[in-house]
Design brief:
single chain, mainly alpha, Fumarate Reductase Cytochrome B subunit, two-stranded antiparallel sheet, 6% strand, elongated
Length: 185
C-alpha cells in the first residue's frame, strides 16, 4: 500500500510509531544542545549516552515506520487542503524520514570513527564499524550537527502546521494522527 490508498485513516500502528519517534526527537533535541553546554564530567557523559541511545532508537523506529508505511499505507490527504499545502506537507514528511534515518546512521558512523562507544540505554553497546579515523569523524559529526539543525527546523514547521490546521482551520489534519483517546478518528 502507498500514500493515499487508505479510506479509514491512519491505523494504530502508524499513530504509535509517529508519536514514539516524535517523543524521541523532541527529547534528543534539547539533550543534544545541553550536552554541548555542560562542562565535561558525569553529567555530560550521561547526556551523550542518552543522545546516542535515542539516536539508535530513532533509527530502529524509523525503519519500523518505513516498513509499516509500505505495508499499511497512509490515508489520502484531507480534501480541504490546498494543492501547495499537500506538496509542502509531502516534502517536509519525506525530508523528515530521510534526514532522521541519515542522521542516526551518520551519528553512529561518526562515533565509531571517533573511537567512542555507542551504548544503547546501558543494555549493550553497538560494535565499532569503522576503524578509528578522527578526520573522518569530524566531517561526519559536522554533517550530523547541521542535519540536526535542519531536522529541528522541519519539526517546528511540522508542529506549527499541525497546530494551524487544528486551531485556525479546525479541520481533521491533526486529529487523524491523534490516538483515539485524544480525539483521533
Amino acid at each position: 500500500m502507498t500514500y493515499g490508498t487508505r479510506k479509514d485513516g491512519y491505523p494504530a500502528s502508524s499513530k504509535w510509531l509517529h508519536w514514539a519517534v516524535a517523543a524521541c526527537v523532541l527529547t534528543t533535541i534539547p539533550v543534544s544542545i545541553a550536552m554541548t553546554w555542560v562542562s565535561g564530567g558525569p553529567l555530560q557523559d550521561t547526556l551523550y549516552n542518552l543522545h546516542k541511545s535515542l539516536g539508535i532508537l530513532i533509527l530502529l523506529l524509523m525503519i519500523l515506520r518505513l516498513i509499516n508505511r509500505l505495508m499499511v499505507g497512509a490515508p489520502a490527504p484531507d480534501p480541504t487542503i490546498a494543492r501547495w499545502q499537500r506538496a509542502a506537507s509531502s516534502a517536509v514528511h519525506g525530508l523528515l524520514y530521510v534526514l532522521l534515518l541519515l542522521m542516526s546512521v551518520t551519528g553512529y558512523l561518526a562515533n565509531s570513527a571517533y573511537g567512542a562507544k555507542t551504548p544503547f540505554f546501558g543494555l549493550f553497546e553497538l560494535p565499532m564499524i569503522i576503524a578509528k579515523n578522527e578526520p573522518l569523524s569530524e566531517k561526519l559529526f559536522a554533517f550530523h550537527k547541521y542535519t540536526g539543525w535542519l531536522v529541528a527546523v522541519l519539526v517546528v514547521m511540522h508542529i506549527g502546521a499541525a497546530l494551524q490546521h487544528h486551531v485556525i482551520h479546525r479541520d481533521n489534519v491533526l486529529r487523524r494522527m491523534l490516538p483515539r483517546a485524544l480525539g483521533g478518528i
